[in-house]
Amino acid sequence: MTTTMAGALNRALRDALAEDPAVHLLGEDIGTLGGVFRVTDGLAAEFGDERCTDTPLAEAGILGTATGMAMYGLRPVVEMQFDAFAYPAFEQLVSHVARMRNRTRGALPLPLTVRIPYGGGIGGVEHHSDSSEAYYMATPGLHVMTPSTVADAYGLLRQAIASDDPVVFLEPKRLYWAKGELEPDVPPGGRAVLRRPGASATLIAYGPSVPVCLAAAEAARERGWDLGVVDLRTLVPFDDETVCAEVRRTGRAVVVHEAAGFAGPGAEIAARVTERCFHYLAAPVGRVTGFDIPYPPPLLERHHLPDAERVLAAVARLQWED
Amino acid sequence: MTTTMAGALNRALRDALAEDPAVHLLGEDIGTLGGVFRVTDGLAAEFGDERCTDTPLAEAGILGTATGMAMYGLRPVVEMQFDAFAYPAFEQLVSHVARMRNRTRGALPLPLTVRIPYGGGIGGVEHHSDSSEAYYMATPGLHVMTPSTVADAYGLLRQAIASDDPVVFLEPKRLYWAKGELEPDVPPGGRAVLRRPGASATLIAYGPSVPVCLAAAEAARERGWDLGVVDLRTLVPFDDETVCAEVRRTGRAVVVHEAAGFAGPGAEIAARVTERCFHYLAAPVGRVTGFDIPYPPPLLERHHLPDAERVLAAVARLQWED
Amino acid sequence: MDTAVDVRAGELLPEPEPHRVLGTGAEPDPETWPELYRQLVRGRRYNTQATALTRQGRLAVYPSSTGQEACQVAAALALEPRDWLFPSYRDTLATVVRGLDPVAALGLLRGDWHTGYDPRALRIAPLCTPLATQLPHAVGLAHAARLRGDDVVALALVGDGGTSEGDFHEALNFAAVWRAPVVFLVQNNGYAISVPLAKQSAAPSLAHKAVGYGMPGRLVDGNDAPAVLGVLRQALARARAGGGPTLIEALTYRLDAHTNADDAGRYRGDAEVAAWRDRDPLALLGDELRRHGLLGEEFEAAAREEAEALAAALRAGLGGDPRLDPADLFAHVFAAPTPQLRSQAASLEVTLE
Amino acid sequence: MDTAVDVRAGELLPEPEPHRVLGTGAEPDPETWPELYRQLVRGRRYNTQATALTRQGRLAVYPSSTGQEACQVAAALALEPRDWLFPSYRDTLATVVRGLDPVAALGLLRGDWHTGYDPRALRIAPLCTPLATQLPHAVGLAHAARLRGDDVVALALVGDGGTSEGDFHEALNFAAVWRAPVVFLVQNNGYAISVPLAKQSAAPSLAHKAVGYGMPGRLVDGNDAPAVLGVLRQALARARAGGGPTLIEALTYRLDAHTNADDAGRYRGDAEVAAWRDRDPLALLGDELRRHGLLGEEFEAAAREEAEALAAALRAGLGGDPRLDPADLFAHVFAAPTPQLRSQAASLEVTLE
Ligand SMILES: Cc1ncc(C[n+]2csc(CCOP(=O)(O)OP(=O)(O)O)c2C)c(N)n1
Ligand SMILES: Cc1ncc(C[n+]2csc(CCOP(=O)(O)OP(=O)(O)O)c2C)c(N)n1
Ligand SMILES: [Mg+2]
Ligand SMILES: [Mg+2]
Fold first, then answer.
1. Is D267 a catalytic residue?
2. Active-site residue among B24, B96, B127, B128?
């Protein structure tokens, strides 16, 4: 079935609600309105206000009450309206959601999914385009997933909701309307997927940057480079095996993401790939990222976001001479 | 003058209050009590409640009102009582403090210092021992400083308060009672310092891990390694020059910190050092860090925290054979 | 150990009925009422023009204050130039009434730099998007001014939805404990995007929150411009005199959708909107002025003309595409760019060459 | 468009004087009062013993509830076994009165694992340290129980300082909007570490915050155990019957320092403490029971004996050093350890060999 990523997410939520009465959705404007991105469209009508609830406008309250619901055995799925509006819930996320299982030595698992639309490229004003994944990656106790395809949007979200651990599920805003095939079976979370094989170098990306890398790989053919593209799909846990197998084969790698480079996700990826593939590397792992600046005004965002051009420039820097 | 780090910080605050009427301290229990670590001891008595204010118990409120005070031209210095208790203020920090200058194109600078006692090793219960520096490093618009010596505690805090930009000032709890010489002149923020020269390999650390590295370097002599120790002092901006000069000389490096390894500060440090020193490196940059777990109970923390033993084990892995 | 409750409690509760002036037989004030009316007419035109410009792609998004102009205008007019205004994203109109260049006020919503003006020039804080986060700023600024001995009051605007955020609570509490010269105006327009007030709060009124902080709560008809102005002026005077903060809830209605991108038909019916159209703040004040013969044809024509001039200025000012310099991406992150930012700026420059 | 304020407002305000039972001539309840007293005696001994154990290094830290035992005991006794208790770090005693193993309750404060017990066994949430963050958990759990059709009420404890946090506000608002079966008990002991209530709030009382959420606020003498129990039982019954949440403020006093590590002499005088010692909850109830001849010597002796047994159990249970397994560091981060955690666990094992 062909659908959009928003449609696939909607379908995943619907199927989860239908299959498991413990699943409850909470968020701002997710009921009657169906969410500002329409990801919950029709769900309140189908399952009622108590399964798909418009909460008061308070993110710590949303995540905190969802935590209590999970303590009672429900499986809450929380929507944060935009990336930057998840920050008020940061304490609940870091100090409770990520730690409840550990703090209680397994007695209180916390099966809770936090859906966060993230990233730029949609012309959003201030606070509507943050790439905040580094914060979640740096918080032990959270799984972090982010789909780049329609199939993964459905499949990973179902897995996230079914997980007995808390999952931060990052939805790339600018792919909400991208179309693709919905296939119910996708590889499990924690596994990266080679979206495109390539012999010259490996591009490592996730979420909104995967299509950028695929475009770059396409354009690279003209320049004689055969670039592979790995889609991480899951940032925590990290699939060292798949990523390193590729990098060892090609000996060259570039990590691409929208988040600021400094202490961004690419730092960890570059560091761990280097630790594991050092003697295979012809050049240091490249990073193509957003600049180390607050997210810029929409009219300048195209300069900030990695594009195929910048990816190829980084590939060119991979010391092809030697 | 010999004093403790807590004493040096107290002195820095006192001198700043005395010199600049725009400096105001805000925090929980910083007035009458002098702070739970006594860093503000005597300041309310000397400068009055309005210069050193016991606020209501609400961290977002503290940082948010301090932001408003800075907008009016004051220089607030905020104390967060413990690392994990800064999380409620995360939205104010990320969405406002870090961005006010940029958002207003320089019209509203935000000269504000956020002091945060951080790190473990003091037997603190849950939420009292977090190493949260990765969050601040990943937030463009913030300077991040952390002293490891009494002299830097004084000097860097004075610089932080004098800075026209917001500074997250991380105070290593377990060094509060460490003694040293107070010297008013220290190198400027943004500059790393070589605490100990060494020819075999370079240990890169900051804050509470600097003494650990110095001890490791001392112990390493027996094993025939001459280890240098770089104290970063400032995580943002990062002193590539000093760090890379050392690593190029030794060809081997290990980063040490208490924070969890995954997406921790060491990821950025290892990645950027590798980018800049790739062909000088005999081995990938090592990382000795806290595990990827929520901070453990006090009775287990010694296993979690990097010690000289673990540092030396990492040094041993730096491929000395070839 | 005296555990008896403070007797002031009763005085801090809001009146049982929202304060109203229009239609109560109150004597019109020829100084302020016509001026309020003139601004309401301008304000309405500003709203309709800005909304129209979104349709033409000249503005990325516009959260209209149509229906709420009485609050917007009164908020701006109640303040002295030395005071500070803390607007939310919906309050561009208030900034324009306060004197901000109408095009500069829309910078954020146009995709340009987040704050298209110098906040210190007219003492208008940046339009604030993260809900309720501007409230502690207002408190801190007011507190700082008082510490400095300056006669400055801060007025902070927030929506009904925003009152649910923790920052609302913390700000009001700090204000009361510090007796800061700050006034909080909640524009209760019945909705937070699609969420009606009943899902936001079960309180008798939002103004009833005030007593829990130890400040007075006032309730006012938010479509009655003289009433809003009056209540605001009282509260500001009280703050100025050292009496501390006040929470004001203005009952109003957002006649347009949340923004041009929103489809209000999904969550509210026409009948409800129609009922509020009958209480249009322009009509309410205009009718009363006419009844008292205070709205000459000439005055009305001049007001309309002025409004059209404002609309024309908007169209002209927003006609072209703003030219932003990519180098500015790095210019104001810090007082002086770090070495890292300098090198990133250089790399971008190379790409752009 | 009906803008008149809800008439219930008046009913939601707290009584002008805190509710009291002792010394009012109320008939003693022979069912509950002696049991309350027995628990108060145990509770006091628990507090003194735990504090003593900090001095011997057997406990890392202990936030004592000496002086607040009436609140602790009443909170535990007011609940049914099927209900849930959400304690803060100061409320170990309440968990012990509810039936938790007195040594397990102190795990956190001993440096052992954060929660030394299975929260589901006795329906006691983990002792919560980040202030007020447990309140939304209580609301969510109560809401979930109601959605499931279970007859479960949650009781959440918080301090006066904790009421300043945003999470307090958000939790109470959610509770009221959802009519969740939850009761909030604020133990107003006058201080947040060193900060007195006057720097925390300017409200007539903390119970006055309730009306701002649309729930009843009750004020009770927190050293009057039957009064606290009565008010709690009313509120819990109301919640159980679908009446929604209640905010209760209990006026009490922390006779000890904040924790054993705190020096209370820095921020409060002896006279203040002495005045509160005169209103010791044990003495208040004991005297009244004695006046009514309800406290036989035998009963008193048995209570003391039980208390000593509890203290002895503490000393015995905390005598040795707990043995923690370093492998457990990795065991419960996730349902199943990630490859990364497995390899970190392996590396630690190697070091320890
Ligand atoms: C912290 C935060 N959460 C969510 C949002 C997204 N959002 C923008 S406007 C809005 C509704 C606000 O309602 P209200 O406070 O009543 O103001 P109004 O729009 O009616 O003027 C929401 C949820 C936001 N801007 N900030
Ligand atoms: C979010 C947060 N900020 C700060 C602290 C540090 N802290 C621990 S107890 C305390 C005082 C709490 O006072 P109150 O709520 O009145 O409870 P009490 O200790 O009097 O029982 C503070 C500031 C914390 N635990 N959590
Ligand atoms: Mg609204
Ligand atoms: Mg207290």
1. yes
2. B128
